[in-house]
Amino acid sequence: MAVRQSELQGHLDAMLLTVLRERPLHGYGMVEELRRRSHGEFDLPEGTIYPALHRLEGAGLLASRWEVVDGRRRRVYALSRKGREAAGQRVESWRRFSAAIDAVLAPAAEGNG
Amino acid sequence: MSQLARILRRSKHSAPGCSPHALAGSQHALGRSPDAPARSPHAPAPSLHGPCGAPAAPSVDPQHPDPIAAYVSELEASLRPRRMLGRRIVRKRVLTEVSSHLRESAEEIASHRPTTRATAEREAVARFGGAHELAAGIAAARRARPLAAQRLVALSAAWAAAMALGSATVWAAVQVQSTAHAATPARTAPGPAGLSPRRAAPLIPLSPAPGRARARQRCDHQRTGVELPSCGGVRSTRAKR
Questions:
Q1: Across the interface, do B101 and A6 touch by the CB < 8 Å criterion?
Q2: Mean pLDDT in chain A?
Q3: Cβ–Cβ gap A73/B96 under 8 Å
Q4: Potential cystine with B18: which of A102, B54, B124, B221 (Cβ 3.0-4.6 Å)?
Q5: Model ipTM?
Q6: For residues A63 and A17, is the Cβ–Cβ distance under 8 A?
Q7: Of the candidates B36, B190, B1, B126, which has an alpha carbon nearest to the alpha carbon of residue A4?
Q8: What contacts B127, CB < 8 A, 6 or more positions away?
Q9: Contact A46 B105 (CB under 8 A)
Q10: DSSP one-letter code for B191
Q11: Which residues of A touch B127 (CB under 8 A)?
Q12: 3-state SS, residue A74
């Protein structure tokens, strides 16, 4: 079952920051990377990422620049130092949160099984 | 007629009061039911109708020869009236970025499946999401952005006000001083016998006095220890007596 967009909304910023930890990417590249990492589960309307990218850039977590690839202009985004720190914090926060949710849901899952 | 064309035609008959903006954040914007299987990255565009029967996807004319250009035009029209910092620059940037994204997406679709360019572009547009939702999202992100910029503007305004106030105060002080000096020109003149204007001021009459009375008046001030040449005449007069 695919993950609902409403469930992803609160985590989109963290996912974008995490995807950019490895290397700078343009918008389409990020969408592809999200799709690849989630094995097709995260299938957002692709335009959804742009407001998030603008917001993260405004917060100083990302920096962007134009690049020309095959004659086409791309806006490439990279993490700033602040963004790298924020990405680490959000991953850590998510791990704690997901462990807590797992702990709550695990008994119910066992009961069903 | 393609599935997308049917969807887009249906969108024209959407229920009243169901704004496409209301679809932002809805899982229907994904174009599938919650229980539907995950879509392959290169699968055809799915059903796109929202909870109100309105399109979550852009309302691009299915017969348009260049769906991406039509979408970009729609996005531009939607961005144009929105208030945000650096509106023109942001608009140009977003349109270039979105257009580039859609072209790349369409090329990717066309490279995985035999299809026409127009169909691939329509599918890329359908995956991208509504232009109105995107414009609203960008505007909201740009409005939230200028916290630092707002602080900068506020600081600049405060600095300019302080500078203006300081300049006005200095100017007023200079004006008052120059007016006072203009009213007492003799006091500012160089004093006799090398006295500073301040010490010599009492020695110099402000209004002319005739003859001896004037000279006597001056010589009364000899107690100050200042030797005035004009007093010689008075002494000689007294000696004669």
A1: no
A2: 88
A3: yes
A4: B54
A5: 0.86
A6: no
A7: B36
A8: A45, A46, B31, B45, B105
A9: yes
A10: P
A11: 45-46
A12: strand
Q: In terms of C-beta distances under 8 Å and separation of at least 24 residues, what long-range contacts does A70-73 make, across chains too?
A: A72/B100, A72/B103, A72/B104, A73/B96, A73/B100
Of the pLDDT bands very low, low, confident and very high (cuts 50, 70, 90), residue B218 is low
Q: Which residues on chain B place their C-beta less than 8 Å from a C-beta of chain A?
A: 25-27, 29-32, 34-41, 56, 90, 93-94, 96-98, 100-101, 103-105, 127-130, 133-134, 137-138, 140-142, 144-146, 148
Give the distance from residue A63's alpha carbon to the nearest chain B alpha carbon, in angstroms: 14
Torsion of CA B28, B30, B33, B38, to 10 degrees: -170
Q: Please give the interface size between A and B, counted as residue pairs whose CB atoms are below 8 Å apart.
A: 105
Q: Do residues B228 and B205 make contact, with C-beta atoms less than 8 angstroms apart?
A: no
Nearest-Cα residue of chain A relative to residue B45? A45
The pTM (predicted TM-score) of the whole model is 0.58
Q: Tell me the two tokens of residue B78.
A: 């939607």
Angle at B13 between CA B10 and CA B17, to 5 degrees: 125
Residues in chain B: 241
**Three-class SS state of B216:** helix
Chain B residue with Cα closest to A46: B128
| A88-97, B83-92, B217-226: segment of lowest average pLDDT | B217-226
Would you say the C-alpha torsion B91, A49, B105, A5 has a positive or negative sign?
negative
Q: Which residue type, as a one-letter code, is found at position B56?
A: A
Eight-class DSSP state of B190: P
| In contact, B100 and B110? CB cutoff 8 Å | no
Q: Give the pLDDT mean for A36-56.
A: 90
Nearest CA in chain A to B143: A55
B52 or B205: which carries more pLDDT confidence? B205
User: Higher model confidence: residue B210 or residue A12?
Assistant: A12
